[in-house]
Amino acid sequence: xxxxxxxxxxxxxxxSIQIDLQDQSVLALQExxxxxxxxxxxxxxxxxxxxxxxxxxxxGRMFATxxxxxxxxxxxxxxxxxxxxxxxxxxxxxxxxxxVRTALDLERGMKILGQLGRGRDA
Amino acid sequence: MPxxxxxxxxxxxxxxxxxxxxxxxxxTYAQQTKLxxxxxxxxxxxxxxxxxNTLIYGGGGFARVEEVSDxxxxxxxxSFHDEGPGIPxxxxxxxxxxxxxxxxxxxxxxxxxxVDQFDLDTEVGRGTVVTxxxxxx
Lengths: 122, 137
Ligand SMILES: Nc1ncnc2c1ncn2[C@@H]1O[C@H](COP(=O)(O)OP(=O)(O)OP(=O)(O)O)[C@@H](O)[C@H]1O
Ligand SMILES: [Mg+2]
Known about the structure:
Number of domains of chain B: 1
CATH architecture of chain A: 2-Layer Sandwich
CATH class of chain B: Alpha Beta
Order of helices and strands of chain B: EHHEEHHEE
Shape of chain B: globular
Organism (chain A): Lentzea cavernae
Protein name (chain A): Anti-sigma factor antagonist
Oligomer: heterodimer
Organism (chain B): Lentzea cavernae
Shape of chain A: globular
CATH topology of chain B: Heat Shock Protein 90
Radius of gyration of chain B: 14 Å
Distance between the termini of chain A: 42 Å
Number of helices of chain B: 4
Largest sheet of chain B: 5 strands, antiparallel
InterPro entries (chain B): HATPase_C_sf, HATPase_dom
Number of domains of chain A: 1
Order of helices and strands of chain A: EEHEHEHEH
Bound molecules: adenosine-5'-triphosphate, magnesium ion
InterPro entries (chain A): Bact_StressResp_Reg, STAS_dom, STAS_dom_sf
Radius of gyration of chain A: 14 Å
CATH superfamily of chain B: Histidine kinase-like ATPase, C-terminal domain
Strand order of the largest sheet of chain B: 1-2-3-5-4
Structural class of chain B: alpha+beta
CATH topology of chain A: Transcription Regulator spoIIAA
Number of strands of chain A: 5
Strand order of the largest sheet of chain A: 1-2-3-4-5
CATH superfamily of chain A: STAS domain
Distance between the termini of chain B: 19 Å
């Protein structure tokens, strides 16, 4: 099974998904991230899916799960870079990703996390 | 309809990473048939849902993928076969949000929305075959 690497950039964990995710990799990523957020005290998680060609219900649910886990550690999650074809498909599949924050690209995602982080310290 | 020279392809669904292989195979056919990028994505996503169901509920099986034609247009057909327990209540299984397990219950109903043709053949105690087709526009 391939594992998705997690990078730490300042107080943010960056997860850039570059592989075709099998379900075990999805579960491993959720566990690795929980571990990493708690050990680093990161205040934000960015999941970059610009290289991801399909998001099915299992992968979509991972975004919601990661967002919930990070909230327990007082961190925010932003999913960035969703491809248009993936977005259209997700809507038709019926997955709304209600509680998941999204941004167009990595830069905007980082900006959102910066703003949320400042709000937290104030 | 005469079979194409490159014909149908069949691959097993016995483990997690087979689901990834099914996705890749379906994408290859969808690209070869020149479905639009959105239609490719829809078909591959539907295939991913159905292959996972074959694995989890059907106890494994196989997928079959082929290029088809109705005389006017080309398309891609994928079917998912298992000899598992079958689906006792189809209305329930096809309803949005119903899962016998811990799923979201979007796999079958969502896959149905994502394709042009959806056929479900199931018999309790015998198994399930789900066949989906996406036509080129
Ligand atoms: N191949 C199959 N064999 C037996 N039962 C099946 C099969 N496929 C689906 N089912 C039944 O139909 C139900 C609905 O399937 P569906 O894919 O829509 O939802 P799910 O798999 O439970 O959740 P999700 O796909 O959203 O994670 C399943 O919970 C299962 O009981
Ligand atoms: Mg399912």
